[in-house]
């Protein structure tokens, strides 16, 4: 069904583009930016006239302000904004993977695997399948689909469709420690590791060298192998050394996974590191740099490297603020109201980092708030892997006070008005406390 939908979307866009230009609007995270890069390249090769815009989110005012002279194409968003799109007097296409909770209007053509109950794919992969259906020339865009998938943390337990994308991208997949970049010498990768955080090793060159000695991994003339170059025996010894060093703070299930190595700028790169760089640019208000980076612009590559350093410094400052600030805490939940102390574009990343921290027990609901002009950006995460459905939880809180909710069961967010700040926290605590009683 998904491939039939893609073919039909191509047919409809071909017809609509004969009389109108195409306006493409994509989300600003890694999946959204890689989707935009794939779609831009595919449309240009198709000979279509189009404009491209990268946005943080779709709210009612933004959608109402979109004109109707163009065909509207949304990438990695809009599945939760269908009620705003139903009155648009133009053709609307949505290439997305988020859950659909509203009725799909007659003017909206939806390409969404969750709608078809098919293999879970990120938007970049959907856009790649669209591009490949247009022409096999577009197979050179497969690496972007891999980066988008890794960026959206959808690279676990993948199926046949994504396996075919990996093949098209000629991706090297290796089982190992989820330590990135896996292409950097091990001593450096361990020293600068924050996810996973390894006590006594992260941030310490002496600790990193000591861990490598414990694992029996030696340098060659002072130069260590990169993670992806380790053989199975060396990888096993390194995993054991990290687990012993971490004691109960890191578990093997969360430590080990697939490493994805893709060709980028004619060099073998770690998809996780590329994803982090793209994400950093958008979070630091430079999505145009992220898009140019994805499309192979060398200037944008240099700028992305600079932005990534600034981004990491911002995250360190944000995490320091969280550690020192007062929080609203209850049984199995923690609410962090950062107000204007943390950028709204990185509050979700901060919540994600906290959710992977060994400081918090499995199942803890972490909700972080940050001001976004006259609104408040809310990001919710689950510590560990198991817990309550955050999208449903936020939906129950937001519906009575007004706002937009999106995301997934274990990572969701919403946008509310500044005036609803106290009411939101009050209602959120009520729902969380009731949920705890039920559990």
How would you portray this structure in words?
This protein has 439 residues and is α/β, with parallel strands linked by helices. It folds into three domains: 2-169, inorganic pyrophosphatase (n-terminal core); 176-315, no CATH class; 325-438, Diaminopimelate Epimerase, Chain A, domain 1. It is 44% helix and 18% strand. The chain has 17 helices and 14 strands. The chain has helices spanning 2-16, 30-46, 60-65, 82-85, 123-134, 142-151, 160-168, 186-191, 205-214, 232-246, 252-255, 271-283, 287-294, 298-324, 347-355, 390-401, 421-438, and strands spanning 22-27, 50-55, 71-75, 92-95, 108-111, 172-177, 256-264, 267-270, 328-330, 333-337, 365-372, 375-382, 404-408, 411-417. The strands form three sheets. A six-stranded mixed sheet has the order 9-10-11-12-14-13. Strands 2-1-3-4-5 form a five-stranded parallel sheet. α4 links the parallel β3 (71-75) and β4 (92-95). α12 runs antiparallel to α13 and α12 (271-283) crosses α14. It is globular, with a radius of gyration of 22 Å. It starts with a helix and ends with a helix. The relative contact order is 0.09.
